[in-house]
Amino acid sequence: MTNPSNRSAVIRLGISTCPNDTFAFAGLLARRVDWRGLDFRVELIDIQQLNDRLLAGDFDIAKTSFHAALLLAQSCVVLPSGSALGFGVGPLLLAARPDESPQSHHQVTLCPGAQTTATMLFEMFYPATCRIEQVVFSEIMPRLTRGAADFGVCIHEGRFTWQDQGLALVEDLGSRWERETGCPLPLGGLVARKRLPSALIATAQAVIRDSIDWALSDPDAALPTMRRYAQEFDDDVLMRHVDLYVNDWTRDLGPVGAAALAELSTRARAAGILDHRLELDVFDPQTPDAVGSVTDVPQPPKNRESE
Fold first, then answer.
1. Is the residue at 304 inside a domain?
2. Is residue 298 situated within a structural domain?
């Protein structure tokens, strides 16, 4: 479908409200970078909501857990920019009481979403131990402090504040991944629908890379956007989050990032989490067979809201 020449190609973009995303996309959200002829309609929601909405076909490009991305490998391609992966970035398995670990189906572990990489890691490392309940990530620590569950897999800002809640650390799941694989832990990344023209994906990728570079060049300029969506409003905590999750692999996955994705796929199959072989393709903006035009993407309904 070709749009009228006086209309920009609309990109339905979904990102999470976590500080590394609001930091990386602050330049795009505030129009501080050139949108290169695209019209981004952005929604900021919880990561599991992003997974669900992406699986339902609601977005053209979206941040998603790499667990969910593996389920969408046949229809989506990973963008080289915008990912969260690295060393020392993994989710924490916390306990409501000290000196306890998941051992019995009578125990309950709270996880931040069925298709999150955090849940995948818990299922890899603690298979068939206790009952899993899925809740919004921001509810996990409050429920643990009330004694409403035994364990919780903590992500986002909670990684820096769990000790203030009187909780106990069972294990850093990311550190365990690193010891066993030698790879950085791939948590989540941006994926684009393979049905989109390659030229359009390349243009969107360029805008996203520009936005990341803009924020890295002046981190303080991104803080107002980060504060707007953060669960934790302390600027120091927000920037510690950025320092941990935004790195060279956020700018470009490169061969190390691609290898980490392949390792995640292999281990998910070995653990029985995936029942068939799925490999994630990383989009190459320099691909010589890029075809299509930024005017070839269908337009969404006019009543779709953007942030």
1. no
2. no
Q: Give the model's pLDDT for residue 136.
A: 86
Question: Alpha-carbon Rg of the chain, whole angstroms?
Answer: 19
Residue 10 is predicted with a pLDDT of: 95
Q: What are phi and psi of 6, to 5 degrees?
A: -90, 10
Given 181, 205, 231, the domain boundary residue is: 181
Give, rounded to a whole angstrom, the gap between the first and last alpha carbons of the chain. Answer: 26
Q: What span, in angstroms and rounded, lies between the C-alpha atoms of 100 and 142?
A: 18
pLDDT of residue 304: 31
Which residue among 105, 106, 156, 241 is the active-site one? 156
- Domain stop point among 181, 212, 242: 181
| Mean pLDDT, the chain cut into blocks of 10 residues (307 residues total) | 54 93 96 96 91 93 93 94 91 93 92 90 93 90 92 80 85 95 94 95 97 96 89 78 90 95 92 81 74 34 32
Long-range contacts of 216-222 (CB under 8 A, 24+ apart): 216/246, 216/251, 219/23, 221/26, 221/32, 222/22, 222/23, 222/26, 222/27
Same domain, 225 and 96: no
Q: What pLDDT score does 160 carry?
A: 72
The count of structural domains within the chain is 2
Q: 193 and 149 in one domain?
A: no
Any catalytic annotation for residue 276? no
String of DSSP letters for 262-278: HHHHHHHHHTTSSSS--
Tell me, yes or no, whether 79 and 203 share the same domain.
Answer: yes
User: Backbone phi, then psi, for 268, in 5-degree steps?
Assistant: -65, -40
The domain in which residue 107 lies consists of 92-181
Whole-number Å distance between alpha carbons of 60 and 58: 7
Question: Are 173 and 24 members of one domain?
Answer: no
